[in-house]
Every structure is written in C-alpha cells, then in structure tokens.
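Write out a sequence, fold above all:
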Amino acid sequence: GMQPTYRGGRQRTQFYSNYTREQNSNGEQASVISSLLQMSPLLLLILMSVLNSIFTEDPAWSYHRNGNYKEERSTSWNSVRYYVKGDFTEKYTNQKILHLEYDIERDYKQDLQIKCKAVVSTQSTGVELNILIPVRG
C-alpha cells in the first residue's frame, strides 16, 4: 500500500507557530481596543468634566461677601444687597448690569416666596396638630 509521506514537517510547524503567535498578538490588540471602547463613556465623562471646569466662569455676583466678592452693591429698584468682584464695572456694561440686577431681584423674590411658604406650611401644620390633639383636663 501507499504510505503517506511527510515533507517539510519542520517548516509546517514553524509556519503554524508563527501563525498562532500572530493570532495571539491580534487577539491582544483586539482585547485592548475592546477595553478602550468599553471605557470610552467614562473617559468622555471625565474629559467633559475637566473641560467644563476649565471654561466655567465664576458667577458675576453673590448674595454674601466672601472670597473675591467684596464690593457691595444694591439693585436699582428694591435695593437688594449683593456683592461683586473688583473688576465688575469694567467687565459689565450698564445695560448688562441692569439685566443682572433684574435676575438678582427675581431670584431674591423667589427665595423669599419659598421661605414664606415653608413658614406658613409649618405654622398651619402646627395649628392643625393642636386642633387634632384632644386636650384632657
């Protein structure tokens, strides 16, 4: 009968081991790429956070004197007190300042309304509780 002949067995082995090594390195590269893709939302979030902190400007004013907000001012209409940085009048035109003061007063009024509702709510709840609790004599 016919006997199978093996020629270049060493060459074939060398070829397959090279091929296997290439496959492994390609698999490692794919694994790294896959990991990076999985982490991309997190990396994007971190990048956006860093960029946001770099480009975010401090507010133009504060209700409280602190840090850089040392110069006291008050709004034109209702004299609501607020504090600004030293370069405030250089950075903002009179028109812009009027817009800011409008916002300051609007925010101040909204804050007062919230506080008043909270006080009224607390008082009315207290009154209701007094009515609901029977007085024993």
